[in-house]
Prior knowledge:
Elements: E1 12-13, E2 17-20, H1 27-34, H2 37-42, H3 52-62, E3 69-76, E4 81-92, E5 97-104, H4 114-129, E6 134-140, H5 144-152, E7 156-167, E8 170-180, H6 181-187
Parallel strand pairs: 5-6
Antiparallel strand pairs: 1-2, 2-3, 3-4, 4-5, 6-8, 7-8
Amino acid sequence: MNAHPQTRPVVVAGERVFLSHIFADDAPLLAQWFADLEFTALLGQQGYSYTLEQEQQWINANAIAKDDRRTFTIILRDGERLIGTCSLFRINLLHGIAELGIAICDKTVWGQGCGREAVRLLVDYGFRYLNLYNISLWVYAFNERAYRAYVRAGFREVGRLRGAIMLDGRRYDRILMEITRDDRISVG
């Protein structure tokens, strides 16, 4: 359920999703999603389950654009439903670099391309409005769906920390991926 039907401003427009502002009223839904251990493990936060109070603190910390961070909600156009969040962080405007993070929290839309579209929107925002040149991200080898979505969005693998993540008694690689403004121009 969206606490802000028909009132979310479209900050970055896409076909199926758009990026918008984060609201204090989003905390209960985010807390419900981030209490899910399966979900938080996919983000590399094994064993973490977040409370309403923690989500409220996170929203308060991210609701205001800062020089080194921009955070958005991901809204499904159909019904203006909140399905996740995404951020550019560790933004360095002098060097034109940033890191990207995304969480498609609503499992009912997993595998439907919403994450890939949100990543493309966020990358375009970073290149166009922040004048970034390089956007990087980390993904975990056990999160194959995310890895494929990043590749389809134009990212390429540039390095691995082998066995850097332990999950359920097994070691997995932590994978560094990037996209540059030049890459984006060449793939359209």
